[in-house]
Specification:
423 residues; alpha/beta; Rossmann fold; Molybdenum Cofactor Biosythetic Enzyme, Chain A; 15-stranded mixed beta sheet; 3-stranded antiparallel beta sheet; globular
């Protein structure tokens, strides 16, 4: 493989494809690796995104995996490192965003970096350091009910400072509006004040495009996927339709949904209301020893030839809390993930070659169960969500078309729209 210019570390699998999607739209040829590769990838790419499942790991484990990814990317020649996290800044007071960012800074001998989850195309904006989801603050968006990383504060300076040893500052919208020179001057000012990380305001794509040139030469960038639209130009790369080309699609179609976000709840409801076959699975049945995966596959088998089917654990916050109260938060999540992963492998064995997976933790579990180690990133379905293509022994021959959707992303008709795009 030729030397890459941008090396990316993502803290979950859907976030990795979200980032890769924006880089591809800006003209980069991108490969996504599932976990840290054991050897160089056998393909040409401008950027590689190493997808980790580290968002909710213990802090020390998340740091160790991220540093392993960094070393591999450096060995491939990466000139700049991009640490990607969720556009809703999913984390706790213990991390993992701040500790991982600081560990990468130390490894790169970087005394300063920026942080912003802004992604205006998906209604994530940062204003005066506060994160908005659409028209409401983060802590009023539904994210306050997240089962693993409930977000109770929209002030990102305060959220990140709780996780960091270094001082956290702000580059506000007035500075960003003035462009590269003003942003660089503000960075110098913050450095002089002893600030190591700075939240950056962005309320539009224009803000992100103004920010991009100011990040040229910065060893480490930390952000959601939005900042990616302004980086390829720093390496002399322009948008090109060839960057997103994938092989033709074939085979049966299915959706697996493990996300419990408001957006995914609406998508599941829209699929059901359209009259498509859908089956919900119950964590309590799994815990009781019922072979829920086999039941789901027996249900899906006769239906797959008629069009896409949906198998989901998606539920509203009250139902989730009830199950967690009986099984425990971690146990409930792990049971469902293992079951959905087994269902994914079974569906592919039945001939599914176009698979949509909703939810970051679910995506990670399914990809690992399918033995996928890398994916080519293709065209965007909705902002932040592309189709991808993977070669895997689980799908011999033409491989598998796959999309990994963050729970919070996509229009209500996302599932149907995704398959329509391929056909």
């Amino acid at each position: 493989m030729k030397k890459i210019v941008l090396g990316c570390i993502a803290d979950d699998f859907t976030g990795a494809t979200d980032l890769a999607n924006n880089l591809v739209r800006a003209g980069m040829r991108v490969v996504q690796a599932m976990g840290v590769p054991e050897q160089p990838l056998d393909t040409d790419a401008d950027a590689v995104v190493v997808a980790l499942k580290s968002r909710t790991l213990p802090v020390d484990d998340a740091i160790a995996q991220s540093l392993d990814a960094l070393r591999w990317l450096q060995a491939q020649g990466a000139q700049q490192i991009y640490f990607k996290y969720c556009s809703t800044f999913d984390s706790t007071a213990q991390g993992n965003i701040g500790p991982v960012a600081e560990a990468l800074m130390e490894a790169l001998a970087a005394d300063f970096t920026i942080a912003t989850p802004a992604f205006p195309d998906n209604q994530r904006t940062v204003f005066k350091g506060h994160l908005f989801v659409g028209d409401v603050l983060l802590n009023e968006s539904g994210m306050q009910n997240h089962p693993l990383t409930p977000m109770m504060d929209a002030n990102l300076v305060r959220v990140l400072q709780a996780q960091c040893r270094r001082k956290v500052g702000l580059i506000d919208y007035k500075v960003v509006a003035q462009g590269e020179a003003a942003i660089r001057a503000r960075i110098d000012e913050l450095r002089a004040q002893g600030v190591g990380l700075a939240i950056v305001d962005a309320v539009s794509n224009d803000d992100l495009l103004r920010l991009g040139p100011a990040l040229k030469g910065m060893p480490l960038v930390t952000a959601g996927s939005g900042v990616a639209i302004g980086l390829p130009a720093n390496f002399g790369i322009a948008p090109s339709s060839t960057a997103s080309a994938l092989p033709p699609a074939a085979g049966l179609q299915a959706v697996i949904s493990g996300s419990c976000s408001l957006a995914t709840n609406r998508q599941v409801a829209a699929f059901v209301q359209a009259g498509r076959p859908a089956l919900g699975i119950d964590a309590l049945q799994i815990a009781a020893g019922v072979d829920v995966a086999q039941q789901a596959l027996a249900w899906a088998g006769p239906l797959l030839s008629q069009g896409p089917v949906l198998i989901y654990s998606t539920a509203d916050p009250a139902a989730i809390k009830s199950v967690q109260g009986q099984l425990g938060v971690e146990e409930a999540g792990a049971l469902v993930e293992r079951t959905l992963a087994a269902i994914a492998r079974g569906l592919v064995a039945l001939g599914v070659r176009q698979l949509v997976v909703a939810g970051g933790e679910t995506s990670g579990a399914c990809v690992q169960a399918l033995g996928i180690t890398q994916m080519k990133i293709g065209p965007q379905i909705d902002p932040g969500v592309p189709w991808c293509h993977a070669q895997t022994d689980a799908a011999p021959g033409g491989g598998l078309h796959l999309t990994l959707k963050s729970g919070n992303f996509g229009a209500d008709d996302f599932f149907g729209k995704a398959f329509a795009m391929l056909t």
